[in-house]
Design brief:
Elements lengths: L1 E5 L4 H10 L6 E6 L8 H4 L17 H6 L3 E4 L6 H8 L5 E4 L9 H8 L11 E2 L2 H9 L3 E3 L3 H15 L9 E6 L14 H4 L4 E2 L8 H12 L6 E6 L6 E8 L6 H12 L5 E6 L14 E8 L4 E8 L3 H15 L16
Parallel strand pairs: 1-2, 1-3, 3-4, 4-6, 5-6, 7-9, 11-12
Antiparallel strand pairs: 7-10, 8-9, 10-13, 12-13
Helix pairs in contact: 1-11, 6-11, 7-9, 7-10
Catalytic activity: N-acetyl-L-glutamate 5-semialdehyde + phosphate + NADP(+) = N-acetyl-L-glutamyl 5-phosphate + NADPH + H(+)
Organism: bioreactor metagenome
Enzyme class: oxidoreductase
């Protein structure tokens, strides 16, 4: 497969290159950057030396990029991907957007939360949380790759919501992310002296991944779901730990909770169930496409607590995008994604 990456110098673009360097069915054709056009990618990311010496192009000639590609990954900030997708929509090329532009079934929700007018509402994009929407991804032209917080949180809550084991108006998500989730651009919030030995919440009640989580859970429940979602930054580069709470419906047993998780994920390679009493940790998924899930049933409060851990740049971004690409092209979805977690 001939692959191009629009926006290859951000962390997700770079992570795509790292993962795809070990994919046996991929040839990288074009990589673009408007700020570093003409520069070799291994000058920006020396760790890619001997893996890539590709020179960064401009994305201005999208027709040429599409003509030479089977699939185009878009790793641009929100508001930019839909313009690229619209221009490529009539070309014989598949599109996977790692940003937010194609994640929402209702463009009005996107516009409300992202404060940007959606200019490609006719796209008919598919939401690419592979484990839940694999059948749709198989035939998709455009895939909106999920956000990192959303991947960890939706996978943690999906079995409980689908099996109607919890009260939908009691769901709380408390999630913590490494600083790479904020991107590569410099900002005071991700400055070393601001983050080291520090832990802080941000965008409480207003984080843009909130409606994405609600959209997926609403679809699973077949009724409206509204959650509380509080994100935090932690002083490490990679990883997300999502702790999710919900009140169980009357009479739901721990065994029913166990069965719900096993029924949904027992055949899913990239979801590792640690079981009741299991405690996922970010280091156990670092550098891999795995999502680890454990849960606890608190009989004292009649609540279930589900904990999930992912690498935000892999299962939460580039790895899941490659997983979707594999599904779109009829490959074993593990192809190129068999990296073991980095430990310690």
């Amino acid at each position: 497969m001939k692959v191009s990456i629009i926006g290859a110098t951000g962390y997700t673009g770079e992570e795509l290159l790292r993962i795809l360097s070990g994919h046996p069915e991929v040839e990288i054709i074009h990589i673009t950057s408007e700020s570093s056009t003409g520069t070799a990618i291994n000058q920006i990311y020396p760790h890619l030396t001997k893996l890539y010496d590709n020179v960064l192009d401009s994305m201005k000639d999208l027709d040429s990029i599409a003509a030479h590609s089977d699939v185009v990954f878009i790793a641009l900030p929100h508001g930019h991907a839909m313009e690229v997708g619209k221009k490529l929509a009539q070309q014989n090329v598949k599109i996977i957007d790692l940003g937010a532009d194609y994640r929402f079934s209702d463009p009005k929700v996107y516009e409300k939360w992202y404060k940007v007018v959606h200019t490609h509402q006719e796209a008919k994009a598919v939401y690419g949380l592979t484990e839940l929407y694999r059948k749709d991804v198989t035939t998709a032209k455009i895939v909106g790759n999920p956000g990192c917080y959303t991947t960890a949180s939706i996978l943690a809550l999906a079995p409980l919501v689908k099996q109607k084991l919890v009260k939908l108006d009691t769901i709380i998500v408390d999630a913590k992310s490494g600083v790479s989730g904020a991107g590569r651009s410099l900002s005071l919030n991700s400055h070393f002296t601001e983050m080291v030995e520090n832990l802080k919440a941000y965008n409480v009640g207003g984080h843009r991944h909130t409606p994405e989580i609600e959209q997926a859970l609403t679809g699973l429940a077949s009724e409206n779901v509204v959650i509380n979602f509080t994100p935090h930054l932690i002083p490490m580069a990679r990883g997300i730990l999502s702790t999710c709470y919900a009140n169980l419906k009357q009479g739901v047993t721990p065994e029913q909770v166990d069965e719900a998780f096993h029924a949904m994920y027992s055949d899913e390679y990239f979801v590792r169930l640690l079981g009741r009493g299991g405690y996922p940790a970010t280091k156990q998924t670092r550098g891999s496409n795995f999502c680890d899930i454990g849960w606890h049933v608190d009989s004292r409060t009649n609540r279930v607590i589900v904990i999930s851990a992912i690498d935000n740049l892999v299962k939460g971004a580039a790895g899941q995008a490659v997983q979707n690409m594999n599904v779109m092209f009829g490959l074993d979805e593990k192809t190129g994604l068999m990296q073991a977690p980095l430990y310690p």
